[in-house]
Fold this protein.
Amino acid sequence: MNAQVRDKRLVAQSFSRAAATYDSVAALQRAVADQLINQLPVMTPEVVLDLGSGTGYATPLLRARYPQAQLFSLDLAEGMLAYARGRHRLESHHHICGDAEALPLADASVDLIFSSLAIQWCEQPRRLFAELARVLKPGGRALLATLGPATLSELRRAWAAVDDDRHVNEFLPLVQLEAAADALRPCWQQTELRVLEYERLGELMHELKALGAHNVNPRRRQGLSGPARLRILARAYDEQRLSNGRLPASYEIYYLDWIRTSA
Ligand SMILES: C[S@@+](CC[C@H](N)C(=O)[O-])C[C@H]1O[C@@H](n2cnc3c(N)ncnc32)[C@H](O)[C@@H]1O
């Protein structure tokens, strides 16, 4: 894990600012959430938590599947929650501002945690999974979609031609996630590689910014001027064009269905 931990206030700020633009560029995020929804377990939960709920895409899908459940949409970014509140007004549905690594929820109070493309923002997996296990009832389920280390590898490689700062988030391999999750046991898991394509690097950068997912990592040094650095970056990315001439951006997606062990 990188010694320089990302500032969560910056993560929250970045996603809050992106709330109004997020849905316009979140096709991949919706496709992943849909896939995770298809894996929802057959159960009759009293309490369902959508962790890192963003603009609330999954809310009506979770409500349709579990009409009797209390639904909690939790997010670090107040701006995301404000946007989501304006979008859905449902019975037994509450919005909570909070951090996945320090959940403002009671022990053994949740039957099902649903979380699509949010936990990759957490840098302390032991703490994160201890929190998920703490709030889950014994036998409760955590249905998670998160990102693996091949995600945005082309962008990481291109930045490496510019400097050795951390410009792109690092994502942990599945074995490390599993090793960090003491009280959760896998029921089912799957890995998928999706490669998005762009004509220009600017399109990818614009999309990451509109998602709120652009770089908020601490900067160590700035050698070359901005335009010079961007020229090197663009050239290094260009060298990775596919045979169809387009620029690839890989997303390695883990779908995890974990159960809270009773011990
Ligand atoms: C890529 S968006 C995904 C949103 C939604 N789940 C979806 O599929 O559209 C990631 C969300 O996770 C939230 N997030 C990031 N770090 C978080 C944390 N530590 N605790 C709770 N939410 C967090 C962000 O604010 C953002 O709304």
User: Anything to note?
Assistant: Residues 112 and 143 are 8 Å apart (CA to CA). Residues 11, 15, 26, 29, 33, 52-54, 57, 75-77, 80, 99-101, 116-118, 121-122, 213 surround S-adenosylmethionine (CB under 6 Å). The chain has a mean pLDDT of 93. Strands lie at 47-51, 70-75, 93-97, 110-116, 136-147, 184-198, 247-260.
